[in-house]
Amino acid sequence: MRNLAINSASPETFRLAIHLVATLMVALLLSSCQSSAQSPEYRTVTNEELVTLLEDENVQLVDVRTPEEVAQGIIAGADHIDIYDQEFVNKLSQLDKNRPVAVYCAAGGRSAKASLKLKELGFQQIYDLKGGYRGWQQAGFPVSQ
Q1: 30, 46, 105, 126: least CB-packed within 10 angstroms?
Q2: Model pLDDT for residues 64-97, shown as the tens digit of each residue
Q3: Strand-pair category, 101-104 with 79-80
């Protein structure tokens, strides 16, 4: 194996190299923090958390149950977009992607699927009601007919 000669660099060149490496590391750190801050938020929420979210008039509330289920009652202020409707994805796309979306179904299964679709469509803040409409109603929270 050959011996590699290392040229001695001046202290000024060495300080410049260290500064450059440190600057690059800070830039990489900041860019990774920025991209994670912009990643979509998806989480399940309790009834109480949904009440708090709905105090913000900016939140879009979406019921993904069937028309027959909605006929039994709906959470006040919810838009109905049937998950089985052939235009489901198109209707979801018409919601404002810059506003938070809270979604629910009867018990939580379909709303989880709808939440994933919202994430795929580019929505940034998605909240899925744990226990769905049934849990909401059983806990005594208000519903509309």
Answers
A1: 30
A2: 999 999 999 999 999 999 999 999 999 999 999 9
A3: unpaired
Give Cα separations from 75 to 26, 34, 71, 106, 134 (angstroms): 47, 36, 11, 11, 11
Q: Which residues does residue 102 pair with via DSSP β-bridges, in sequence order? A: 61, 127
Name the strand (E) or helix (H) holding 73: none
125: three-class secondary structure by DSSP: strand
Interatomic CA distance for residues 78 and 5, integer angstroms: 73
Annotated catalytic sites, by residue?
105
77 CB neighbour count, 10 Å cutoff: 13
Task: Tell me how far apart the alpha carbons of residues 50 and 55 are, in angstroms, rounded to a whole number.
Answer: 9
Q: Give first-to-last CA distance, the chain, whole Å.
A: 84
pTM: 0.72
